Amino acid sequence: MNVAADAPTDGEVMGLLIEETRRFLAREVDPAAIEASGRIPDRVVAAAASAGLFALTLPESHGGLGLPLRSAGTIVAELARVDRSVATMVGLHAGLGTRSLVVHGSDARRARWLPALAEGERVGAFGATEAGAGSDLQAIRTVARPEGSGLRIDGEKSYVTNGGFAGLYTLLVRTPGLGGERSFSMVCVPRETPGLSVGPEEDKLGIRASSTVTVRLDDVYVPSDHLLGAPGAGMDLAHEALGWGRVVMATGCTGTARYALDATLAHVTARRQFHRPIGDFDAVRMQVSTMAATLFAMESLADRAACAAEAGGDLTGLSAAAKVFCSEGAFAICDAALQLHGAMGFLEQTGVARALRDCRITRIFEGANDVLLVHLGAGLLVARARPEAPSSGHPAFDEFERRLSRLVAENRAEFGIRGTQRQLLTSRLARAEVCALAARASLDRAATDPESAELAAFAVEQLTREGHRQLDALRFIQEDERAAASLSKRSYSPWASGRSA
Amino acid sequence: MTTNALLVDPAARAVLSDDQIRARAVHLLATILERDPETVQQAHSLRADLGMDSLSALEFLSSLSHEFDIDLEVEETYGLTTLNEVVALVTQRVRGSL
Hints:
The structure holds 2 protein chains of 2 kinds. Chain A is an alpha+beta fold.
C-alpha cells in the first residue's frame, strides 16, 4: 500500500496552513483592540493553538508540523501583516523559545515538553538579557550551581518575551561548577518550578500586547537533565538559537512592511490633491518604488537566510545581516507609509502609526543592530578572505562587490587585529556587506522569477549606491573618530561630574 | 588599562623580561574577563577554561597589540588556543619589533 500517495505534499500543507492562519486572523485578531487591552487575550492564544501556530517548527515526531524555517517564516510574516504582537508571540516560540530544546534537549525532556509546546499548552520563552547584561552577555550574573543530581539557580532575567504566560523558559546562565569558572550553560525551567516568579508586564512603545516581563529565580532547583547540550556550551547554544531567531524576526519584519506598503498603495491611488491621485507625482512614485524595492530585497535576504538555516552551518553573519536589513527596512517603510498618509497617518485609525511603533523594537531586541554591525564587520576583517563572488550579470553591482572586497583586504592589511576594535570601520564595512548580501539575494530571486526583474534591478541599483556611500565614508574614519572623541568628551563632562546641562 | 610608557618609549619594551610580558598579558586578560589574575593559568585554553568567545578573544588580542605597540596580523592569530601560545606570539613580536 502506498501510504505516501495519500499524504499531503509540503506545498499542500503550507497552502492549508496559510488559509488556516488567515481564517484565524480574520476571526480572532482585532489589532487595535488587542493593542488597547495591552495583552493577547486567552481566547486568541487558544485559537492560535487550535490553528497549529505553536507547532510550526517543532518535530513531527513530537506533535509538531516539522516545517522548515522558511515555511514557518511565511506564516510569521502573515501574522505580522495583521498583528505584530501575535506574530512576536508565535515567532519567539518557534525561534528562541524552543529551538535549543528541539536540537539539544535530552530524549526524555523532548518527549515530555515538546508535545505540550506544539499544542500551545506551554508557550516557549527565552531569557539571556539581564539588567547588567544586554549586548554584553559575558556579564550575565544568573548562576546555576550543581547540587546533588541537579542545579540550584539564582538570578533575574529581564525583558523576557512571552514571559508572562510562558510554560517553559530556556535560560542562559553561568555554570561555574560545570566546565570552569567562566562556563555558561543553557537550562530549561518549567513555569511551575518553585522559586520561579514573574514580574508585572512592562509598558512599551510598541508590540504593546506582547508579554514582556522580568523573571526571577530564587533558589530554583531543577534536575540536571534540564540542561541543554553539553555543560559549558551555553554561549554556543545561545548564538545558534539567536541565529535561528533572527531569521524568524527578519521574516516578521517583511510582514509588517508588506502591510505598510499595501496601505500606502491603497492610499496614494485613492487620495487626490491638485486634481490628481497623489501617487501620480514623481516624488511619491519614487518613495513608493523605493519602499517596494526595499521590501523585495528584505524578502529575498530573509529567504536566503532561512534556506541557509535549513542547510545547517554557521548562520551568524547571514542571520545578523538579515535581521539588521529587515528591521531597518521595515522601519523605513513604515515611516515612509506614515509620511505618505500625511496627517491621517499620524492618527490611529489608519493603522500605520501602530505598524511604525510595533517594528521599532526589532532594531533592538535579539541583538541591537549597532552591535551586530560592529561584530559583522569584525568578522569580515578576520575572515581568511572575502569569498570571490561570481559575476552577477549586473556590472555596477559587480564593481561595488570588488571594491568592497578590496577595501576589506586593505584595511585588514593596514590595521591587523586592531582593526576589529575600530567600530566606525567595522560598522561601515558591515553596512556595505549587508547591501551586497541583500542585492545578491535580490538578483538570485529575480533569476528564478522573471516577473520581478524590473523591481530587482531597481533594488540592486539602490543597494549598490548605498553600499558605495558606506565605502566612501571609510575615508573619513580617522576624522570622525577624533571629532566624536573630542565632542563627546566635551558633552559628557557636565554629566560625568554630576552636573546636568 | 594601557601602560602608556610602552607606547611613548620603545626602550621601555626592550627591558621587559618574559615574565613581565606574561604578567602584563595576564593582567589584561583578567581585566577583560573581570576575574582575579591569580586564577589565570598559562596552560588555560582561551575557550574551554576561560570562557572566551571569538569577540572577547579579538578584544584581548587587540588590547595586547595596543599595550605592547606591536602589529598582530590577522593570520598570525589563527589557531591560537591557549594563553601560553598567545604570550609566546606577543613575546616574539615584542622582541622582533625592537
